[in-house]
Write a structure and sequence with these properties.
The chain is α/β, with parallel strands linked by helices. It has helices spanning 5-12, 50-63, 81-90, 106-115, 129-136, 141-154, 173-182, 197-201, 203-206, 210-226, 287-293, 295-298, 324-331, 347-356, and strands at 19-23, 67-71, 94-99, 119-124, 159-165, 187-192, 232-236, 256-259, 265-266. Strands 7-6-5-4-3-2-1-8-9 form a nine-stranded mixed β-sheet, with helices on one face. 34% of the residues lie in helices and 12% in strands. The chain binds iron/sulfur cluster and FE2/S2 (inorganic) cluster. Iron/sulfur cluster (SF4) binds at residues 244-245, 309-310, 313, 315-316, 319, 321-322, 337-338, 341, 343.
C-alpha cells in the first residue's frame, strides 16, 4: 500500500497522526504499581533493532508526524538511544524523552542533548523520599531523580515533571507541584491514576477516596492560578469521580499511534486488552499503511461503531464515547459508552468501585511489575 497523504485525506477524511509514542523497551529498573504497560512484557531479545526504529521514524516524518515520544519501560536501557534521537532530529521530528531518570548519567544527558533531544519528561513518584522509593520499588530512586533533573536543566533542555497521583501520595499533590518548580521544570503533569495494565491489578491499593480526591483537585487547581507564569500545570482529574469521560487518546486512531518494543502498532497503550483486534506490525507494513488501513485503527474511528446513548449524544464529537479499554474492562464490551459517563447504563459499576475506595485504609500493598533490576524497597 503506497497511498499518499493527499489520497488518504480525501478518501478517509483523516489527517496525519500528530505524535508517535515509541515504547523502545519494556525493560525498566522501577516497578511502579500503576504502570500502563501490559502484564506480559516484551522480552529484550524480541525488541526492534536500531535500523527498524530509524525506518519507522523516517516513515513517520514523511507521513507528517510532528512529535516522537520516546518511552518504555525505561528508554535509557537502550544503548542506541543517542543514535535513535540523532535520527529523529535529522528527519525533523521533535523528540521528547519520557524517562524515570534511572540509568542516566550527566554525560549521557549531555550526549542526548547534543544528539538533538528537544525535551525531557522525568517521572517522580512522590515528594517524600521514603514513600517515593517504596512506590517505585527502588531504593535511592528519589535522590537519583533530583540529580537527573538538575542535569537536564543544566544541559539546557526544557523539563517536565510527571507525577501520578494515588492513595499513597494524594496528600502531597501540591508538594509535588512545588517540587517541580524547585527543580526548574517549565511544566508539571499531575495525573490521577488511570486503571489499565498494572494499574488495574493494583486498583484497590491505588484508588483514593472521593474526599481525598476532591481536596487534592482543589489544591492543584488553586496552584494553577497562583503559579500562572511560573510553571504550566497539566491536571488530569480522576475518572472515577467525574460525570463525563475523557476523550481518550484524543479519539481512537485520530491523533497518535503507539509502537510496542516488538513493533506492534496500537491505537492506545491498552488496546491489546480488547479481544479480536488485529494489530499490524512495523516489521512488515509501513507507518502510512498501518495508519490508514490497519483493522485495529479503523475499529473505533469516527462514530459508526457507537451504540446508544453515545450515538445520539451531542458530546460524541467531544469525548468520542470515552475510553474503549475502560468500557471493555468494566462492561465486557468495548463498544459500550465508557461507564464513567453518568448517562451510561453501566455507570453504577463506577459508583460501586468508587464507594469501595472509601473503606480503604492502611499502607497499600502493591503487586509490582516483574521486569526490573532490583528488589522492591522495604
Ligand atoms: Fe460521551 Fe457517550 Fe456519555 Fe455522550 S453518552 S457524554 S458521547 S460517553
Ligand atoms: Fe485504550 Fe483509552 S486506554 S482507548
Amino acid at each position: 500500500m503506497t497511498a499518499t497523504p493527499e489520497r488518504f485525506d480525501s478518501q478517509k477524511r483523516l489527517g496525519a497522526p500528530v505524535a508517535i509514542l515509541a515504547e523502545l523497551t519494556h525493560r525498566c529498573p522501577l516497578g511502579c504499581p500503576y504502570c500502563s504497560n501490559p502484564l506480559a512484557l516484551d522480552p529484550r531479545e524480541d525488541e526492534l533493532s536500531t535500523s527498524d526504529w530509524t525506518r519507522v521514524f523516517s516513515q513517520a516524518a514523511t507521513l507528517g508526524v510532528l512529535h516522537a515520544n520516546l518511552s518504555g519501560g525505561e528508554p535509557a536501557a537502550r544503548q542506541d538511544l543517542t543514535d535513535i534521537i540523532a535520527h529523529c532530529a535529522n528527519v525533523g521530528l521533535y523528540t521528547n524523552l519520557i524517562t524515570s531518570g534511572i540509568g542516566l548519567t550527566q554525560d549521557r544527558v549531555n550526549e542526548l542533548a547534543r544528539a538533538g533531544l528537544d525535551h525531557a519528561q522525568l517521572s517522580i513518584q512522590d515528594s517524600d523520599a521514603p514513600s517515593a522509593d517504596r512506590i517505585a520499588g527502588y531504593k535511592g530512586a528519589f535522590a537519583r531523580k533530583l540529580a537527573v533533573a538538575e542535569w537536564i536543566t543544566q544541559a539546557g533542555l526544557p523539563l517536565t515533571i510527571n507525577a501520578v497521583i494515588h492513595r499513597a501520595n494524594i496528600f502531597r499533590a501540591g508538594d509535588m507541584v512545588r517540587l517541580a518548580v524547585k527543580l526548574g521544570a517549565r511544566r508539571v503533569e499531575i495525573a490521577h491514576t488511570q486503571y489499565y495494565g498494572w494499574g488495574l491489578t493494583n486498583r484497590a491499593a491505588l484508588m483514593p477516596s472521593r474526599t481525598e480526591a476532591e481536596v487534592a483537585i482543589a489544591e492543584v487547581e488553586a496552584l494553577k492560578k497562583a503559579l500562572a507564569g511560573v510553571i504550566v500545570i497539566d491536571h488530569v482529574i480522576p475518572d472515577y469521580h467525574a460525570r463525563y469521560p475523557k476523550a481518550c487518546m484524543g479519539g481512537w486512531g485520530k491523533r497518535g499511534l503507539n509502537v510496542t518494543p516488538t513493533g506492534k502498532t496500537l491505537p492506545c497503550h491498552a488496546a491489546e486488552t480488547i479481544p479480536d483486534l488485529e494489530f499490524w506490525t512495523v516489521r512488515d507494513r509501513s507507518i502510512e499503511d498501518i495508519w490508514i488501513n490497519s483493522p485495529a485503527f479503523n475499529a473505533f474511528r469516527g462514530e459508526d461503531w457507537m451504540r446508544e446513548p453515545c450515538r445520539s449524544c451531542p458530546r460524541k464529537t467531544v469525548d468520542y464515547g470515552g475510553c474503549r479499554c475502560q468500557a471493555l474492562a468494566l462492561t465486557g464490551d468495548a463498544r459500550e459508552a465508557d461507564p464513567v459517563c453518568h448517562l451510561s447504563p453501566h455507570h453504577d459499576k463506577i459508583a460501586e468501585i468508587a464507594a469501595q475506595s472509601e473503606d480503604a485504609g492502611g499502607v497499600p500493598l502493591y503487586n509490582y511489575r516483574r521486569m526490573k533490576l532490583r528488589e522492591p524497597a522495604e
